[in-house]
Every structure is written in C-alpha cells, then in structure tokens.
C-alpha cells in the first residue's frame, strides 16, 4: 500500500529503517523532536480544545 508522503518524511523513514531512532536523532538532530512536538501539539489542540468547544457551542445554542 502506497501513501502520499512529503519527501522529507520519506527521507526520515529511510534513515529510521537504517539505524533506528537513535540514528535518526544523530543525523537530523532536534528537528525530529520539534516536528514530533508540533504534531502532537496541533493534534491535541484539535481533539481536546476545538472539538469540545464546537460541541458546547452547538449544544448551548439549543437552550
């Protein structure tokens, strides 16, 4: 199964497959940690802040 991925992700996956997570961190450095942090920051903001807010806003307008 082939997924469309950005080229930098493909490059990171190749490095990860060669030597694992430690090798990826040695080659790419803190950029991997920053990308990981931003991904979860955005994801959790949507799940735990935006969706409940929209649900509350729509429910509260019924009363």
Model description:
There is one protein chain. With 63 residues, the protein is an all-alpha fold. It has 2 helices and no strands. The chain is elongated and about 60 Å long. The model has no long low-confidence stretch (mean pLDDT 88).
What's the topology here?
Blueprint: H1 7-28, H2 30-60
What are its keywords?
63 residues, mainly alpha, 2 helices, 0% strand
Q: How many β-strand runs? A: 0
SSE string, helices as H and strands as E: HH
Low-confidence stretches: none
The helix/strand class is: mainly alpha
Note the overall shape.
Answer: elongated
What about the largest sheet? none
Cα(first) to Cα(last) distance is 48 Å
Tally of helical runs: 2
Q: Please give the share of residues in helix.
A: over 70%
Mean of residue pLDDT?
88
Radius of gyration: 18 Å
Beta-strand residue fraction: under 5%
What's the short story on this structure?
The chain is an all-alpha fold and 63 residues long. Helix content is 84%, strand content 0%.
């Amino acid at each position: 199964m082939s997924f469309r991925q950005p080229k930098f992700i493909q490059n990171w996956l190749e490095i990860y497959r060669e030597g694992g997570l430690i090798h990826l961190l040695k080659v790419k450095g803190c950029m991997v940690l920053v990308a990981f942090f931003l991904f979860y920051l955005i994801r959790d903001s949507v799940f735990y802040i935006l969706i409940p807010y929209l649900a509350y806003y729509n429910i509260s307008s019924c009363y």
